[in-house]
């Protein structure tokens, strides 16, 4: 199926006029059924248009055209006023919009005739307001009346974005790089253009040639992070965050291979988000020596939001719609792909990526099929339980014994899977540290049953033993491994938000606004006041809101620790002394598994509103300081777990753990320097 679309946009009235010349795959007496937006009534001179019974989505109408004689060609005319659709997508963005501020149309709004099956190729010519720019897939050229887009690669959607953009671009080999801004900022555009080509080269070398003639970063009025074929749609505030070109941008570029290149068969599970997260978010951290920390964060998100009955099989993941679905489809899937890479080795894993790209390019693919192509015949492992089961293994280290022997030493121990569900089959890294203070020796243990006994003969005396020290296994963290973090609070069964009664009405209303936002996001919020009796259950997180909150009485000491403290006039966070009214502070109790209590100190309604929006994005941290006046983050610190249960010490004063350096999947120090000059590559240390 090919389309040749001629489009006239009239944003002032919310209207659009379209002529679509369609070429069918075969000679036929009728078209297959197609969907079109309810605002349109299709017309054609090649035959008669029949409206089919309505089904499902009320935004759509369904039609078929019957020809007078067999044909492969049909020209459809239609026009209508779309305006701004009431239906909203993620980020509050309308499902379709044609208005003076801009245009956004995709296949879900059926602005073009939507048939079953892929679009082989399309040409899109757009006539819009003077000074406007358009964005779609394919290669751009100009015409006498506007812009033409021509795509020769198969597509499962046709996008039309238009608005008063300032366009910046440069050539990168055969690929055109572009940045389109609603508010022109040449320095911002240059920041993106500087790094986009490096990511395209990275993934082209790793997987296969970039499949499109361009890549564009497009500013969106809504705060989104959408990856479409050959472009990404980033919210105005999002794209101006200084770290986005080095974190989110590679993720969106990689979707041109996974998701927009190899398509997802959603009925068989969305594997593309997890694989994209592993090869972008995780890889960027690994290039800076922070891969183990990123994997720990993924396991924390799973424990915080998906465990305890909120998990579901990976083959049932379709898209992210809340924190639990994100913890499964992104974090859990990322860890499963990491285990596959560790089992296969980097060479076989890379060949699997290339095989998946070669064999499924522009074809729908489910989770199991993607995994089979990725692993190939390189392993005898069966990864299907990781895709079809819920849950994850919990680990305990038992019966650790060291004995001297005639030839040196013998260490024996048992690894036990503690989850209620049946045991999993996986490879478990175990690190032995010796007294020479060098890097640990890493050994692999095949874990199959409920208990796995291990015995090793050693030439020298070990000083410590660490199970899964770099968080290489998808597993359920022991509570003692989980450091105090905002994410642990957010993921509690219930969050009590205690609002101070003795404050002005505007401040009280701001705290209630924070509670409403968090209830919409987390769904577990209960609002209390500092006049209520407060005796929360063990699995309830207690948030004390505001410096003057009477619930702080008798609880300030619970926040005291080596790097923090709280008094009536401010706080201590490491070496800083933030003051009430000048800085906003977030602190958690260090012994959070005994007292799950957090404090948010902010003085103004504006600062409270900023924290309501910002804090869910700081889930891995336990101590935070923000400037009260403008919400700028001044300090963010991760807290330490108190009693790691998967470590055993053989010496009273053992050396610290040094995990052996492992090169990232793509060992490219030049890329680190190019895309993030603030960081350097170091060995991984959890």
Proportion in helices: 10-25%
Number of domains: 4
What is the overall number of helices? 13
Instruction: Quote the beta fraction.
Output: 25-35%
Alpha-beta classification: alpha+beta
Distance between the termini: 52 Å
Radius of gyration from the CA trace?
A: 28 Å
Number of strands: 36
Mean pLDDT: 92
What fold name stands as the CATH topology of the largest domain? Answer: Immunoglobulin-like
What are the low-pLDDT stretches, counting only 5+ consecutive residues below 50?
676-686
Q: In the CATH hierarchy, what is the architecture of the largest domain at level 2?
A: Sandwich
Broad shape: globular
Explained architecture:
With 686 residues, this protein is an alpha+beta fold. The chain is built from 13 helices and 36 strands. Helix 1 (186-206) packs across helix 3 (248-254). The longest helix is centred in the middle third of the chain and has 22 residues, at 323-344. The strands form eight sheets. Strands 1, 2, 3, 4, 5, 8, 9, 11 and 12 form a nine-stranded mixed β-sheet that branches. The protein has a seven-stranded mixed β-sheet with strand order 28-27-29-33-32-34-35. Strand 4 (47-51) and strand 5 (60-81) form a beta hairpin. It has four domains: 2-236, Immunoglobulin-like; 263-388, Neutral Protease, domain 2 (Orthogonal Bundle), CATH 1.10.390; 395-479 and 644-663, Sandwich (Immunoglobulin-like), CATH 2.60.40; 486-637, Chitobiase, domain 2 (2-Layer Sandwich), CATH 3.30.379.
